[in-house]
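Lab notebook, bench 4. We co-purified these components, and the gel suggests they stay together. Before we commit to crystallization screens, I want a quick structural picture of the whole thing.
Request: model the full complex, all chains together.
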Amino acid sequence: MTATKKRSWTEAVRERAVGALPPEKLLPDSQPSYMSSWIYIFGVLSLGSLVVIIASGSILSLKGPQWWHFTGIGHFFNSIHLWSVELFFFFMAIHLWGKYWMAAWRGGRARVWMTGVVCFVVAIPCALTGYVSQQNFDAQWISTQAKDAMNAAGIGAFFNLTNFGQMYSVHVLLLPLAVVAIVVAHILLVRKHGIVPPIPLAGVGEGRSLAGAGDSPAGPAGHESGSGSGLPASGDGSMKTPGSGSGDDREPGPDPAGSPT
Amino acid sequence: MSRESRRAEDDAARTWTGAYKPYDILKEATIALGVVIALVVVLTILFSSPDDPPSTVQSWSHADPVDFVTTATTELDGSSTTGSYGPPYNHASSGQHIAFIHLAKWLGVSHPINTAQDFVLAPLRSLTNQPVLQRAVSSYEAAPVKSQTAWTSAYETALAKASATPSGSITVKAGDYGPLPTMMGSLLTFAQSGGLDGALLTSRRFYQTDYTKPLLFMADGGVLTSRAQQQHLLGEQWGLMNETGSYPGQVWLWLYTFWYQIKPFSTSANADILVMAVMGVMTLALLLIPFIPGLRDIPRRIPIYRLIWRDHYRTLPPPRGDDTPAQRPIPT
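Here is the predicted assembly.
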C-alpha cells in the first residue's frame, strides 16, 4: 500500500501561477530586440494615467463629493483627476490603434487583445458616471441627455444616471474596481505571452516568410524551414534568448527608442 | 491568406526565439508615471477644470416664470416629455424599440413617476396652511377628465402669450382655466421660495441622493436646454461628448455621438436604441477582431507595421531571389 500525498489547493494554485508566470517573465530584465518604437510607450503611459486617476480620485473621495466645489485645493485635485482621465483615454486609444496595426492578437494573444478592448469599453461608463457625479451643470445636462440611451436599451431600469447616490458609488467603487481588475488581467496576459513579434516580411531572411502570404507569391513558400518563429533579430543570424548569457553579452539590438529606459 | 499559412504564422508568433536586449521594466514604469504626473500638473495649471453651478428649480422659476408654469401645466396633464415617456418612468408609451425587441418595455417601470402627482399636486398638497389653494386642488382633482383637459389646454394656449411681471409672477389673458391660475400661482411662488426643490426630493427618508424628479422636471422645461445651447452642448452640437467651456469633454464618445448627426438616426423616433445597437455591434466587432476574417487582415494589407518595426526589418538579411521594392522594408 502506497500513500500518495494529496496536493493542497494552495500548492496547486501556486504551482500553476508560477508555471504560467515565473518571476523572470513577470518582471523581465530583458526584452525582444524588435521592441524599438515609440508606439510601445503608450501602454505604460495609459497605466501611469490610471495610477494618477486612482490617486486623485481617492483624495477627492476622502474629502467627499462637495469638497472640490468650495476649496482651491479641492478644485486643483478635481482638475488633476479630469486631465489624467483625458490622458488615459488618449494614450489608451493610441495604444489600441498601435496594437491593431501590429495585429497583436497573433500567436495565441487573442485574450490580450480582448482584455484591452474590454478595458477601454468599461472605462467609458466609468468616466460617464464621473461626469454625472460632478454636481454641477455638466452633470445635470449629461445625465438628462444620456439617460435616454440607457432607458431605450433597458439599462436605465437598473442604472439610473439621474440618481446621484447610485452613480457616485458606481463611479468610486464598482467600475474602478472592474477597470483595475481588467488591467491587471491584461498585464498578466502580456507578461505571459510576451510582446507580439513583428509580422514577417515575405521572402526576407532565412526561412521566415509569413507576412503578406496572401499578397505575395513568395508567401507561404518562405515558411518551409519550419524553424519556429525563425526570426533572427541580429544581423549575423545569431540568436540570443533570455537566460542565454549575462546582460553584457546579449545582442545589442537597435536603439530602444520605444523605451524611456 | 490560407488557413495553413495563418496557422504557421500564428505558431511562429507564439514565442520569440531571437535576440533580446537589456530592459528595466520598473524603471520604465516609474519614468512613465513621472511623465504623466508632469503632464497632468501642467494641464491643470494651464486649464484647470469647468464647474458651472447647477440650475435649480428656484433659479429657473425666477429666471423664466412663464416657462416654469408652462412646463408645470404639461406635467399636470401628462403631455410633458416625462409624462409621455414610458418605461422606466410610466406606462404612457411602450418606449423605444427595434423591430420586435422592446427592451425598455420588457424591463418595465422601475422608477415610477406620475408627473401630475409628483411634480404638481403632491407639492401643492404639502402647503397645508393655504386653504384657498387646497380647495383649488380639490376642485381640480374632483373635476372630470374632460374638464381638466379643457382647462390645461386653454391655459397652455394662453401661456404661449403670457408675460412675466417684474415681481416674478405671470400675466395670462383672462379665460376659463378652472382652478389652474390659483394652483399654478401657488406652485410658482413655492418654486421661487426654493421649497419645490426640496419637495421634489422628498421621500420617506431624511437623507436624499436621488435627483431624478427635479432633474426630469427641469429637463422638461427650457432651463437646461437654453444653458446647453449657449455652451454648445445640444444634440445637434455633438451633445454630451462636450462639456461646458472649451474643454475636451468625453471625446471618446465621438463615434457614439456621430450617429445622432446623420439619417436615419437623426430623424428616427427610436434613435437611441438604434444608435446603441450600432455601437453594440461595432464594439463586439472590435472585441472579436482576432477571429473576423477581413478585419484581422487589414494590418497586413496596410503595412503600417513596417514603420513600427523598421529597425528590426533593417537587421534582417536581404531577401532571397529578386529583391522587389514590395518585399523590402520601407526606407526610413
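The longest strand of chain B covers residues 20-22. Worth comparing against the SEC data before the next meeting. DSSP finds 17 helices and three strands in chain B.
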